[in-house]
Give the backbone structure.
Amino acid sequence: MSGLAVGLALSVLSTAWAESAAAADVGLPDNARVQILNAWQLGGRAVREQAQVALAGTNDELKSFLDTGMARARSEDERVAALAMLNSAGPGVRAAIQKALSGSDTDLHLFITEGYKGPLSDDRRAAVLMVLNTGGKAVVRDANKALNDGSEKALNTFLQSGQYAARQEDEQGEALAMLNGAGPNLTQAVNRALNGTPADVTQLLDKGQYLARARDQESLTIGQLVSQAESAGRRAREATAAAKEASERAESASAEAKKAAKIAADQSTAAQADSVKASSAAGRAADAARGAADAARTAVAASRTAITAARTAADAAQAAAGAAAAASQASVRAYNAASAASKDSSQAASASEAAKTARDTAKMARRAADAAKSAADASSSAQESSAAAARAGQNAASSAASAADAAEAAGVSQAQAKRARDAASLAQSAANTATASANRAATLAGRAAVAAREAQTAANSAAGHADAAAAAAEDAATHAGQAADWAKKATANADAAISAATDASNAVKQAQSVAQLARDTEAAQLAEQRALAIEVAKKLKAEESQDQAQSQQAQAQQAATTQATSDLLAQAKAETDTAKAATLGRRAAVNLMDSAGSWTRQAAQSALTAGDQGVLEWVTTGYTKALGLDDREKVLTLAKLNRVTLSEAAQKALASSDPRAVTDFLLHGAVDVQSDDYRVTVLETLTGAGKAVTAAANAALNDGSAAALHKYLLETFPRAKAEDNSVAATAALNPAFRVIRLV
């Protein structure tokens, strides 16, 4: 072996020994860097950010991360995950989350890893029971089957799919029952729904049947009215339970978001003198703001569900009032039959039949009263839930604003501060929507509760009349033609009949009044859907703008990172001190840990787990080699496309002996060879195009270069299309503007 080779070998060995000794001095395990890389790969935002800092740092920084930093960062990520869970968790898991968040980091970690399992199992059973309590026959059957099985799989299957299939079965049965005695329009509506989708059947039960019955000028029997009242009452209970659960989720989430915002504010204030801690505090504040925005959106869902509960309660009240009117009318007929039988024995059979009808009617009226009571209770509960949702939404918006202030106060991360401020803006918008929705829900739920209780009273009163009338008719049938004082009895029956008729008239008026409430709740639902659609459109527009801004920012950051990485690599190559060169190399490798190229990404990560010598090898040869392999993969992908010109050019670049052939192809050749394809695609965009697209496309076609056509398709066309869409939307909403555009 030559003296130079021996010297190099000794140099490498001495460097390795020195690194091992230095690591041992601070108590680092041999695989410290591997542990940290694994943490980066599996961790959340906080762990990844701090792991990157450690991997680019000194042995002391590696040790600090492993000893304390990773646990702190993991706890931060776990708090974010726990907050996010609050918006969808059941009551048991919510309580466990709140307890864990109020405890130590160890308590929280135990919950995230194992502690959620018991409460989740309890919530799963509770959720099935809640569905069972408001379900029809098929739902009850399948829910009991899942509960009797008791396994996680059976319960999950029912909650995720089984309950919906069972509900469809129940709704189809309810729709089929409507065909009995139905008029032509209702028959047609039912058959169309049954031949359509499950959503069509639901629509029929909710609204379509009433329009069809009106067209048939059909008077519902008391049995049909009772069925409607019970069905509406059941749906009201179901919607109310959903509204209550959603409002409780929103309140829990907003309460924890408030705590998280305060913690973020305190940490931002305390970290002013430490840029690393301040950056972490800004990230925590942004996470808190996002959690608050999620809580506000949950509040919107709660308020909307409360309006649905109010509408179904109004439906139940209307049907119960109709049943009360029908029962009172049956009482009138029974009293009249009793009077007739008292005088004429030949009317005994009629009196007996009227008595039986009145008895049956009384039973059904009491069922309607029970349904109305259930709807009234549900509507009152929905009123409370809507108020809770409004409070939660505003609290969440306030927390988001506080968190955004904290992120800005940290003063070190504009990106995190903007993320927090954007989340706060979305939270405030959602909170405003939730408040407006909650106010509508509270008003309508209150009116529906009053109407349902009045309908309950009317139905019970009608049942009492019907029972009394039945007793009178039964007595008259038994003693038909035998009463000496039949005139006196006839007068008493007539007075009772007048009272029953008055109640019937009042019940009809009440049903008509509730019908107006039903129309008001339906109008509120339409207004709510419109408001929600506007809110969703705003959110989508904001997300689109944010995506575009992030894309542009990412491109700028990528260019800056690429340049910074190139500078660091050049500095590392020029540095004669091994330790300093390795430090520069690690900083460059950290920039490439998330590289889109798999070879570059893996090589950078491997370098970060290596010692100083391994980093220097990556700096001198490893990076360039990995970059070349990524370029070849890109060209190979293009070569496999079913586009002859591009594929042949790519294959030619891959087969070339010129080391620059692949890179040159990616930089220029891949665009140039597709010039004709680009031109065809640009021409296609002109079909039905607006003014902005037409102008931009013609400009690219007039230029004619592959670069101009490529830029149009990649950048200009999306912007021009958005401009034309905006003009078209404005014209659709503003007829005057449309006329101006046409002129």
User: Anything to note?
Assistant: DSSP finds 25 helices and no strands in the chain. The radius of gyration is 37 Å. The chain has five domains: 1-25, 31-115, 235-515, 575-673, 677-742. Confidence is low (pLDDT under 50) at residues 1-24, 736-743.
